[in-house]
Amino acid sequence: MARDRFLISTHVFPDGDNMGSVLALAEGLRKLRKSAASFIEGPIPKMYEWMPGVNHINTRLPDALKRLGPEASDPVLLIVDSGDLERTGAAFDHWFRLHDGLEIANIDHHVSNSLFGTVNWVDPGYSSVGEMVYEILSELGVPIDPDMAQNLFVSVYTDTGRFSFSNTTERSLNYAAEFVTLGASPITAFRNVYANRTLASFHLQALSFQTLTRFLDDRGCCFWVDQDMFASTATNLDDTEGFIDTIRTLKDFLVVAFLKEVSYGDIRVSVRAHPPIDASALMAIFGGGGHPRAAGCRITAPLNDAIRIFVSKAEEAVNSGRALEKTP
Description:
By secondary structure, this protein is α/β, with parallel strands linked by helices.
Protein backbone atom coordinates (compact mmCIF):
# COMPACT_ATOMS: atom_id res chain seq x y z
CA MET A 1 0.00 0.00 0.00
CA ALA A 2 1.70 3.17 -1.22
CA ARG A 3 -0.05 5.61 1.10
CA ASP A 4 0.62 5.93 4.83
CA ARG A 5 -2.04 8.33 6.17
CA PHE A 6 -5.75 7.53 6.10
CA LEU A 7 -8.82 9.35 7.35
CA ILE A 8 -11.86 7.08 7.62
CA SER A 9 -15.37 8.45 7.82
CA THR A 10 -19.02 7.68 7.18
CA HIS A 11 -22.39 9.40 7.28
CA VAL A 12 -23.83 11.27 10.26
CA PHE A 13 -26.23 9.38 12.57
CA PRO A 14 -24.27 6.15 12.10
CA ASP A 15 -25.78 2.68 12.38
CA GLY A 16 -24.19 -0.64 13.25
CA ASP A 17 -22.73 -1.19 9.79
CA ASN A 18 -21.10 2.26 9.79
CA MET A 19 -19.65 1.76 13.24
CA GLY A 20 -18.36 -1.75 12.67
CA SER A 21 -16.85 -0.93 9.29
CA VAL A 22 -15.07 2.22 10.47
CA LEU A 23 -13.68 0.54 13.59
CA ALA A 24 -12.48 -2.63 11.86
CA LEU A 25 -10.94 -0.81 8.88
CA ALA A 26 -9.10 1.69 11.09
CA GLU A 27 -7.69 -1.06 13.30
CA GLY A 28 -6.69 -3.10 10.28
CA LEU A 29 -4.71 -0.20 8.84
CA ARG A 30 -2.99 0.33 12.16
CA LYS A 31 -1.99 -3.32 12.15
CA LEU A 32 -0.29 -2.58 8.82
CA ARG A 33 1.60 0.22 10.61
CA LYS A 34 -0.31 2.92 8.77
CA SER A 35 -1.40 6.18 10.34
CA ALA A 36 -5.19 5.91 10.49
CA ALA A 37 -7.77 8.14 12.18
CA SER A 38 -11.55 7.92 12.12
CA PHE A 39 -14.12 10.70 12.17
CA ILE A 40 -17.90 10.60 12.53
CA GLU A 41 -19.62 13.95 12.94
CA GLY A 42 -21.79 14.30 16.01
CA PRO A 43 -22.29 12.07 19.02
CA ILE A 44 -21.99 8.29 18.81
CA PRO A 45 -25.41 6.66 19.37
CA LYS A 46 -25.71 5.20 22.86
CA MET A 47 -26.40 1.71 21.57
CA TYR A 48 -22.95 1.57 19.96
CA GLU A 49 -20.85 3.15 22.71
CA TRP A 50 -19.82 -0.32 23.92
CA MET A 51 -18.14 -1.38 20.67
CA PRO A 52 -14.43 -2.25 20.91
CA GLY A 53 -12.21 0.69 20.00
CA VAL A 54 -15.03 3.24 19.97
CA ASN A 55 -12.82 5.63 21.96
CA HIS A 56 -10.63 5.94 18.86
CA ILE A 57 -13.47 7.54 16.85
CA ASN A 58 -13.23 11.32 16.76
CA THR A 59 -16.45 13.33 16.63
CA ARG A 60 -14.54 16.53 15.73
CA LEU A 61 -12.61 16.73 12.46
CA PRO A 62 -9.65 18.71 13.92
CA ASP A 63 -9.12 15.97 16.50
CA ALA A 64 -9.03 13.30 13.79
CA LEU A 65 -6.54 15.28 11.70
CA LYS A 66 -4.36 15.87 14.76
CA ARG A 67 -4.13 12.13 15.32
CA LEU A 68 -2.69 11.73 11.83
CA GLY A 69 0.34 13.85 12.75
CA PRO A 70 1.90 17.00 11.31
CA GLU A 71 2.93 15.63 7.89
CA ALA A 72 2.28 18.04 5.04
CA SER A 73 0.63 15.53 2.68
CA ASP A 74 -3.13 15.20 2.76
CA PRO A 75 -4.51 11.85 3.92
CA VAL A 76 -6.35 9.43 1.70
CA LEU A 77 -10.04 9.54 2.58
CA LEU A 78 -11.82 6.23 3.04
CA ILE A 79 -15.56 6.90 3.04
CA VAL A 80 -17.60 3.83 3.93
CA ASP A 81 -21.34 3.18 3.74
CA SER A 82 -22.26 6.68 2.59
CA GLY A 83 -24.22 7.37 -0.58
CA ASP A 84 -22.61 10.77 -1.12
CA LEU A 85 -20.09 13.11 0.47
CA GLU A 86 -22.74 15.48 1.80
CA ARG A 87 -23.99 12.80 4.19
CA THR A 88 -20.65 12.87 6.02
CA GLY A 89 -21.71 16.17 7.60
CA ALA A 90 -21.04 19.89 7.53
CA ALA A 91 -17.56 19.67 9.07
CA PHE A 92 -16.08 18.32 5.86
CA ASP A 93 -17.46 21.13 3.67
CA HIS A 94 -14.93 23.83 4.43
CA TRP A 95 -12.09 21.34 4.65
CA PHE A 96 -12.87 19.92 1.20
CA ARG A 97 -12.83 23.41 -0.31
CA LEU A 98 -9.33 23.99 1.02
CA HIS A 99 -7.97 20.63 -0.13
CA ASP A 100 -8.34 20.12 -3.86
CA GLY A 101 -7.37 16.80 -5.38
CA LEU A 102 -7.92 14.61 -2.33
CA GLU A 103 -7.83 10.90 -3.04
CA ILE A 104 -11.11 9.35 -1.99
CA ALA A 105 -11.91 5.65 -1.80
CA ASN A 106 -15.69 5.20 -1.79
CA ILE A 107 -16.71 1.81 -0.33
CA ASP A 108 -20.45 1.28 -0.25
CA HIS A 109 -23.35 -1.07 -0.98
CA HIS A 110 -26.15 1.45 -1.60
CA VAL A 111 -27.65 1.31 -5.08
CA SER A 112 -28.17 5.11 -4.87
CA ASN A 113 -24.45 5.88 -4.38
CA SER A 114 -23.31 8.91 -6.40
CA LEU A 115 -19.87 7.40 -7.23
CA PHE A 116 -18.08 10.40 -5.73
CA GLY A 117 -14.72 8.74 -5.13
CA THR A 118 -11.43 8.73 -6.96
CA VAL A 119 -11.86 4.99 -6.59
CA ASN A 120 -15.34 3.53 -6.18
CA TRP A 121 -16.20 0.05 -4.95
CA VAL A 122 -19.98 0.11 -4.83
CA ASP A 123 -21.75 -3.24 -4.90
CA PRO A 124 -25.40 -3.57 -3.78
CA GLY A 125 -24.94 -7.33 -3.74
CA TYR A 126 -23.32 -7.09 -0.31
CA SER A 127 -25.61 -7.07 2.71
CA SER A 128 -23.28 -4.69 4.54
CA VAL A 129 -20.09 -2.75 4.09
CA GLY A 130 -18.72 -4.85 6.94
CA GLU A 131 -18.57 -7.78 4.50
CA MET A 132 -16.64 -5.63 2.03
CA VAL A 133 -14.23 -4.42 4.71
CA TYR A 134 -13.62 -8.01 5.76
CA GLU A 135 -12.64 -8.89 2.20
CA ILE A 136 -10.31 -5.88 2.00
CA LEU A 137 -8.60 -6.81 5.25
CA SER A 138 -8.32 -10.45 4.20
CA GLU A 139 -6.79 -9.45 0.86
CA LEU A 140 -4.23 -7.31 2.71
CA GLY A 141 -3.37 -10.19 4.99
CA VAL A 142 -4.51 -8.41 8.15
CA PRO A 143 -5.10 -10.81 11.08
CA ILE A 144 -8.61 -10.37 12.48
CA ASP A 145 -8.47 -10.17 16.26
CA PRO A 146 -11.54 -10.75 18.50
CA ASP A 147 -12.35 -7.03 18.78
CA MET A 148 -12.30 -6.59 15.00
CA ALA A 149 -14.39 -9.74 14.62
CA GLN A 150 -16.95 -8.34 17.08
CA ASN A 151 -17.21 -5.08 15.15
CA LEU A 152 -17.54 -6.85 11.81
CA PHE A 153 -20.21 -9.13 13.28
CA VAL A 154 -22.20 -6.07 14.38
CA SER A 155 -22.00 -4.71 10.81
CA VAL A 156 -23.53 -7.81 9.26
CA TYR A 157 -25.88 -8.57 12.17
CA THR A 158 -27.53 -5.16 12.20
CA ASP A 159 -27.67 -4.47 8.46
CA THR A 160 -29.41 -7.80 7.86
CA GLY A 161 -31.89 -7.12 10.67
CA ARG A 162 -30.48 -9.99 12.72
CA PHE A 163 -30.42 -12.10 9.53
CA SER A 164 -34.12 -11.49 8.84
CA PHE A 165 -33.98 -9.00 5.92
CA SER A 166 -34.06 -10.05 2.28
CA ASN A 167 -30.40 -8.96 1.88
CA THR A 168 -29.27 -11.90 4.05
CA THR A 169 -27.22 -14.22 1.85
CA GLU A 170 -25.14 -17.35 2.19
CA ARG A 171 -22.10 -15.06 2.28
CA SER A 172 -23.60 -13.04 5.14
CA LEU A 173 -24.16 -16.17 7.21
CA ASN A 174 -20.77 -17.66 6.36
CA TYR A 175 -18.94 -14.45 7.26
CA ALA A 176 -20.91 -14.12 10.50
CA ALA A 177 -19.88 -17.67 11.42
CA GLU A 178 -16.26 -16.83 10.64
CA PHE A 179 -16.45 -13.78 12.90
CA VAL A 180 -17.75 -15.96 15.73
CA THR A 181 -14.89 -18.40 15.15
CA LEU A 182 -12.50 -15.42 15.36
CA GLY A 183 -13.92 -14.29 18.70
CA ALA A 184 -17.16 -12.38 18.11
CA SER A 185 -19.96 -12.90 20.62
CA PRO A 186 -23.50 -12.86 19.14
CA ILE A 187 -25.13 -12.51 22.57
CA THR A 188 -22.96 -9.46 23.32
CA ALA A 189 -24.15 -7.84 20.11
CA PHE A 190 -27.78 -8.68 20.83
CA ARG A 191 -27.77 -7.45 24.41
CA ASN A 192 -26.02 -4.17 23.68
CA VAL A 193 -27.79 -3.24 20.44
CA TYR A 194 -31.27 -4.71 20.81
CA ALA A 195 -31.85 -5.50 24.50
CA ASN A 196 -30.79 -2.29 26.23
CA ARG A 197 -33.95 -0.19 25.90
CA THR A 198 -35.22 1.98 28.71
CA LEU A 199 -38.77 2.16 30.01
CA ALA A 200 -38.85 5.76 28.80
CA SER A 201 -38.21 4.58 25.23
CA PHE A 202 -41.31 2.34 25.49
CA HIS A 203 -43.36 5.34 26.58
CA LEU A 204 -42.05 7.24 23.55
CA GLN A 205 -42.87 4.30 21.30
CA ALA A 206 -46.43 4.22 22.61
CA LEU A 207 -46.87 7.91 21.82
CA SER A 208 -45.44 7.49 18.33
CA PHE A 209 -47.64 4.50 17.53
CA GLN A 210 -50.70 6.58 18.41
CA THR A 211 -49.90 8.82 15.43
CA LEU A 212 -50.08 5.98 12.91
CA THR A 213 -51.85 7.23 9.80
CA ARG A 214 -52.78 5.30 6.67
CA PHE A 215 -52.21 6.58 3.14
CA LEU A 216 -51.81 5.16 -0.37
CA ASP A 217 -55.29 3.60 -0.26
CA ASP A 218 -54.38 1.88 3.01
CA ARG A 219 -51.32 0.22 1.44
CA GLY A 220 -49.00 2.53 3.35
CA CYS A 221 -48.74 4.06 6.80
CA CYS A 222 -46.67 6.75 8.45
CA PHE A 223 -46.04 7.69 12.07
CA TRP A 224 -43.85 10.22 13.81
CA VAL A 225 -42.22 11.65 16.90
CA ASP A 226 -41.84 15.34 17.67
CA GLN A 227 -39.90 17.42 20.16
CA ASP A 228 -42.83 17.53 22.59
CA MET A 229 -42.83 13.73 22.77
CA PHE A 230 -39.09 13.69 23.46
CA ALA A 231 -39.52 16.27 26.19
CA SER A 232 -42.48 14.57 27.88
CA THR A 233 -40.68 11.21 28.06
CA ALA A 234 -37.15 12.53 28.72
CA THR A 235 -35.87 10.72 25.62
CA ASN A 236 -33.95 11.62 22.48
CA LEU A 237 -33.41 10.44 18.92
CA ASP A 238 -31.39 7.40 20.04
CA ASP A 239 -34.48 6.06 21.79
CA THR A 240 -36.40 5.72 18.51
CA GLU A 241 -34.17 2.89 17.30
CA GLY A 242 -36.23 -0.10 16.19
CA PHE A 243 -39.64 1.61 16.15
CA ILE A 244 -40.04 1.30 12.38
CA ASP A 245 -39.00 -2.34 12.38
CA THR A 246 -41.83 -3.12 14.79
CA ILE A 247 -44.38 -1.46 12.50
CA ARG A 248 -42.93 -3.14 9.40
CA THR A 249 -43.97 -6.52 10.83
CA LEU A 250 -47.62 -5.59 10.23
CA LYS A 251 -48.83 -7.56 7.21
CA ASP A 252 -51.19 -4.87 5.94
CA PHE A 253 -48.67 -2.35 4.59
CA LEU A 254 -46.38 -2.27 1.56
CA VAL A 255 -44.60 0.86 2.79
CA VAL A 256 -43.99 2.24 6.27
CA ALA A 257 -42.54 5.71 6.91
CA PHE A 258 -41.24 7.04 10.22
CA LEU A 259 -40.70 10.81 10.54
CA LYS A 260 -38.51 12.13 13.37
CA GLU A 261 -38.35 15.80 14.30
CA VAL A 262 -34.63 16.29 14.99
CA SER A 263 -35.27 20.00 15.55
CA TYR A 264 -37.82 22.49 14.28
CA GLY A 265 -37.79 22.30 10.49
CA ASP A 266 -35.35 19.38 10.37
CA ILE A 267 -37.13 16.05 9.78
CA ARG A 268 -35.48 12.67 9.27
CA VAL A 269 -37.53 10.13 7.34
CA SER A 270 -36.95 6.37 7.39
CA VAL A 271 -38.84 4.06 5.04
CA ARG A 272 -39.30 0.31 4.85
CA ALA A 273 -40.93 -1.17 1.77
CA HIS A 274 -42.09 -4.50 0.39
CA PRO A 275 -42.24 -5.36 -3.34
CA PRO A 276 -43.19 -3.86 -5.69
CA ILE A 277 -42.33 -0.56 -3.95
CA ASP A 278 -38.66 0.46 -4.12
CA ALA A 279 -37.75 2.44 -0.99
CA SER A 280 -34.54 3.74 -2.57
CA ALA A 281 -36.38 5.12 -5.61
CA LEU A 282 -38.97 6.69 -3.34
CA MET A 283 -36.37 8.42 -1.15
CA ALA A 284 -34.45 9.65 -4.20
CA ILE A 285 -37.40 11.95 -4.91
CA PHE A 286 -36.56 13.72 -1.64
CA GLY A 287 -32.80 13.77 -2.22
CA GLY A 288 -32.17 10.67 -0.13
CA GLY A 289 -31.36 7.07 -0.91
CA GLY A 290 -30.63 3.64 0.44
CA HIS A 291 -31.73 0.15 -0.50
CA PRO A 292 -34.88 -1.17 -2.21
CA ARG A 293 -36.22 -2.43 1.14
CA ALA A 294 -34.90 0.33 3.44
CA ALA A 295 -34.00 3.93 2.72
CA GLY A 296 -34.11 7.42 4.17
CA CYS A 297 -33.99 11.16 3.56
CA ARG A 298 -34.25 14.52 5.29
CA ILE A 299 -37.01 17.07 4.72
CA THR A 300 -36.44 20.68 5.69
CA ALA A 301 -39.88 21.83 6.80
CA PRO A 302 -42.02 21.93 9.93
CA LEU A 303 -43.21 18.45 10.88
CA ASN A 304 -46.85 18.87 9.81
CA ASP A 305 -45.72 20.21 6.43
CA ALA A 306 -43.16 17.42 6.09
CA ILE A 307 -45.86 14.79 6.69
CA ARG A 308 -48.12 16.37 4.09
CA ILE A 309 -45.28 16.72 1.56
CA PHE A 310 -44.10 13.17 2.09
CA VAL A 311 -47.54 11.58 1.76
CA SER A 312 -48.44 13.60 -1.33
CA LYS A 313 -45.20 12.91 -3.18
CA ALA A 314 -45.08 9.27 -2.11
CA GLU A 315 -48.59 8.61 -3.40
CA GLU A 316 -47.80 10.34 -6.69
CA ALA A 317 -44.53 8.43 -7.08
CA VAL A 318 -46.07 5.02 -6.39
CA ASN A 319 -49.17 5.62 -8.53
CA SER A 320 -47.07 6.89 -11.44
CA GLY A 321 -44.62 4.01 -11.20
CA ARG A 322 -41.59 6.14 -10.29
CA ALA A 323 -41.19 4.37 -6.94
CA LEU A 324 -41.84 0.86 -8.18
CA GLU A 325 -39.21 -1.77 -8.81
CA LYS A 326 -37.94 -1.87 -12.37
CA THR A 327 -38.89 -5.04 -14.24
CA PRO A 328 -36.16 -6.63 -16.39
